[in-house]
Amino acid sequence: MTSTAIAVSGLRKAFKDKVVLDGIDLEVPAGSIFSLLGPNGAGKTTTVNVLTTLIGADGGTARVAGYDVQTDAKAVRAAIGVTGQFAAVDELLTGRENLQLMVDLSRSVDGDVVQKLLDRFDLTGSADKAVSTYSGGMSRKLDLAMTLVGNPQIIFLDEPTTGLDPRSRRTMWTIIRELVADGVTVFLTTQYLEEADQLADRIAVLDQGRLVAQGTPDELKRQLPGTHVRLRFTTPAELDAASRLFPDATRDDEALALKVPSDGGTKSLRGVLDRLDEYELSAEEFSVHTPDLDDVFLALTGHTTEVVAS
Ligand SMILES: Nc1ncnc2c1ncn2[C@@H]1O[C@H](COP(=O)(O)OP(=O)(O)O)[C@@H](O)[C@H]1O
Ligand SMILES: [Mg+2]
């Protein structure tokens, strides 16, 4: 396999007269995690569907594992695993039966693969229960386990954690990191900046059919209003005094609030509090704000994530 897992150039896709992908270029090195970040309706699933040969593109080229998705779809399919946005598991079957079904459909020769995957995903205890009794996190794990049956080199995960509780989300992140440690390439879509930041080597931001930014999480975050501490005071005099203490801060006179840049770590938070203490100032309210998808879009595009209804 080449060192480029996915290479996309000028990719276009429209549904009737609605342009969904308007010329997309991206490159994903083998063994890395690439995250396509965008709000609902941005075209993430459409991109995944083209790259996984489920639908054809209208223009441009896409190579996955070195094969052209248009002309060599079969070879692409043999190299990839796909976990869709909506779980592909059969609710009426048990976890074990779902996995066995995948094994039977694939040409897997490893007789133990079902049990190995159940163990790996901590699903053995519920393996013989119908999937309809599983939690959302368990279904997602099973879905991902099913994706791994054929030992794919490249895995597409379409919003793998949307709707999961924070604990299941973290479990999923751990599993994704382990996959990459094993040399697998992961193409991940998400609506969460934090998720892309946690997992991805590179992030591309999709907005209205175009990639409006691409880079490492750090490169991207440098373009954003950073993490900051928000201090709210009760009087304008206190706000004045505080803003003299923190010359880098931006003030909101109406809200009597001060936004102090900070990395959000305990050390820098303590620094802010100590400095207030030193001058016998106390904030009415103290909160840490990390940028979210709305901040990303506002910074990169001048608008928020509102997507015009189709
Ligand atoms: N088969 C289809 N026919 C018509 N419109 C579609 C189809 N699939 C997706 N779309 C439209 O394309 C846009 C992008 O959809 P999608 O790729 O699912 O976005 P995302 O996964 O980022 O939420 C949406 O406006 C959606 O309504
Ligand atoms: Mg989608």
From TrEMBL:
Gene Ontology process terms (BP): daunorubicin transport; doxorubicin transport; response to antibiotic
Family annotation (Pfam families): ABC_tran (PF00005)
Superkingdom of the organism of origin: Bacteria
Domain named ABC transporter: residues: 6-233
Any one cellular-component term (Gene Ontology): plasma membrane
Keywords: Antibiotic resistance, ATP-binding, Cell membrane, Membrane, Nucleotide-binding, Translocase, Transport
Subcellular compartments: Cell membrane
Membrane topology: Peripheral membrane protein
GO molecular function term, any single one: ATP hydrolysis activity
Family: Belongs to the ABC transporter superfamily. Drug exporter-1 (DrugE1) (TC 3.A.1.105) family.
NCBIfam families: drrA
Stored PANTHER family: ABC TRANSPORTER ATP-BINDING PROTEIN (PTHR42711), DOXORUBICIN RESISTANCE ATP-BINDING PROTEIN DRRA (PTHR42711:SF19)
Protein's name in the database: ABC-2 type transport system ATP-binding protein
